Amino acid sequence: MIRIAHISDTHITGESAYKGYAYDLIVNDVNRGNFDFVIHTGDVTNQGLREEYERASYELKKIQKPLVVIPGNHDVRNVGYTLFEKFIGPLNGVYEFKDGVVIWVDSTIPDLSDGRIGGHKFRWLKAKLEEYSDRKFKIVASHHHLVPLPDTGRERNVLYNAGDVLDLLLRHEVNLYTCGHKHVPNVYRVEDLVVDNAGCTSCRKTRKGDVNSYNVITLHDDGRVEVRIRRVTGDELRKEHQPIKPKIFVPTGKRLLRIVQMSESNISDRIYFRRKILENVVRTINEKLKPDLVIHNGDVVDMGIERYYERAYEFYERIKAPKLVVPGHNDITYLGYDLFLEYFGEPEIIETRGFTFIPVISAQYETPIGVVGRIGQRKLAERLEDYRESFTVVVLHHNIVPIPRSREVGFLEDAGDVLRTLTAGEANLVLTGHGGNSFGVKVEKTPIVNAGAVSWELHRNPFGNSFNLIEVYRDMVVVFEVQATWGSGRLLGIWKIKGPFSP
Ligand SMILES: [Fe+2]
Ligand SMILES: [Fe+2]
Q: How far is the CA of 136 from the centre of ligand 1 (A)?
């Protein structure tokens, strides 16, 4: 068993101003506790100034355990990264412990609050993950968050390449990602990866009037990863993740539903719209796949003008299966929102064979940034509660988890709160379609699947234009990605789901 104290965001200021009551409280707790080592995930100082680093190196010496310290965006202000190396230690590195390793990587960008593990650092991280692939416990530690967090206001400063990093960590079977930055303690399970955010240890800038806290991580010998969020008030929140045992999945019973999910057809007369591919897809859907439902996750047209909507309508009228279309940001440019309603109608809840499809509109006028809003989130939570007995599928345009190969700038401005609404409400499946690439991960109990671009040449998918074929069984969701030109398929994800529900 390995026990780790995870502290973060101490924001130590210069000697005169700094009052580290919470810091001393937590450090005493850490020193008394039976910890093997301590991880500090950055923002050690407040402005990266010399006097702050001098104070910080004194304060950090109070910790009587081996200590791994990662730089945060505040530490690199005023070219503080040179002082970080001088007063604290290397910006990137590896700490080995019994059965495991912590690989820490500097995600800061000088003078910005945003994060990035780009270029050389990404390759370095990949090389280290390969080097230590035999370790039972692989921990990656960085300052910036990887998946959107609740209660942080506007979603921003997630790693620019969060999708690539998430993909990398999942491929290398990393057990734990630890970070700080947003001053909100949170623990999510993403597939087999535990994403552990520390709150802030000694900064006054907490959210929602919260108090200072740190996280206690326990790595059990049987592979379980346990995280306790320990607040200075003494209350504790505990989460435990049992690792997924690799085994061959065989679905129980007959297939209950087959869904075709597509996005970004971007019908237009621009050269990037690949008309023949979309025609091919419509034919394949009608003649071969014969799904129970076709979902289009938005950006049906490239611009919200009548001529494009007319053509889009012609295309989708040809699909024989029932359809659910939610608007994307392209659809509601210009007069698009009115046209969308005229041609496709207000997206409505569809109930069929024990499934409930809940559309959510996230697109706004003239911006790729989406929002669900606090009222929208509350309505969504109510619907998930109302339809708890059925298999709930939430359908919206904007991606909620970061997508590989795209620059993540918080495309859904309240992604953190929406993600909490979905996971807390135990949505059975979430379908999104922004970012031009396909990706699927299960967060907590909810598989979240993003569709790539079906017929738009400007995409980010090495597999090409594609759509998803989703098959639901009583205890399993299987998602195949179908290449839109050749019809070849590949497995995008296979997830055990909580059954049985009564179809
Ligand atoms: Fe911070
Ligand atoms: Fe930060």
A: 31
